[in-house]
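Notes to self, Alcohol dehydrogenase:
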Amino acid sequence: MKAAVLQEWRGALAIETVADPTCPPDGVVLRVLACGICRSDWHVWTGADPDVALPHVPGHEFCGEVVAVGARVTRWAVGDRVIAPFILACGSCPDCAAGHQTICANQQLPGFTIPGAFAEYVAVPHGDENLAALPEAISPELAAAFGCRVTTAWQALTGRAGLRAGEWLAVFGCGGVGLSAMLLGRALGARVVVVDVVADKLAHAAALGADATVDARTGDAAGQVRAITGGGAHVALEALGLPATTEAALRACRKLGRMVQIGMPAGDHARMELPWDVVYSGQLAVYGTRGMPAHRYPGLFNLVAGGHIDLSPLIARHVALSQATAELALFDGPAPPGVAVITDFTA
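result:
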């Protein structure tokens, strides 16, 4: 099969012919229909993720068609269109039994700890536990965004922070996950203020329904959020993994507010100095979140397939496998609005 292989940190991904993946006895092999290019892939590309060893095939936001099925798989057949979360759980440990697959101690991560989906085919172990059927109403390119960004935002808002209708949500960082959070927050009945440093991203968010936007370059973004929301956000979501935005998200919360850390603190930002006096005096709740288990996908799919939310504006660019390196390099600076999705695996 053809795959984009990372041979050196920050190097151009080499388009190579590599062996097709072997089907796990309890898993499946998918023909990849689409794969998103995410900031987490950029962490892989730069060498900031300690789980990655070279050479390596990145890519964790994917959907596909089943082309091979392991002998122990009971739920899936060749030809099924499916999607997998980027955290593949074992399905048999106590955390999995409790429904908390994202903290499975035996988890595997395509594009990080095992070969990913910047390739024509990808293997998914533990298929019965880690796959969800993809509705016909959801296109493969949109489904790719569900592999990480949309589902992570949904889990943050509904599974962690418990965002309620009528509350204010502040989103710091309007990339794919931040834009997803804005759209989902609006669908849940919240009012949303988006914070970024890229004018085009703020304009895009406003055009898609954000109640307010804040350009952090104008100074004191947290103060501006508190002014807009009349005392602070009920929920603040950080979507970049940077010290400045994490601190601002905490300071933007009203008392008894909830802050959710979605952005991955990696490399030089794995440890941060934060205003814990704000957490203490404001009696804030701080949540971490990472991915969403497959068993929660159908409810989100029903919201989309039922026409209650339009997530199609997330997708900005359809690219070929050979363009992945250029897209990853965009994350070195303020990336353009929207999500890039690989849909051509032949070039």
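- The first helix runs from residue 39 to 46.
- The chain has a mean pLDDT of 95.
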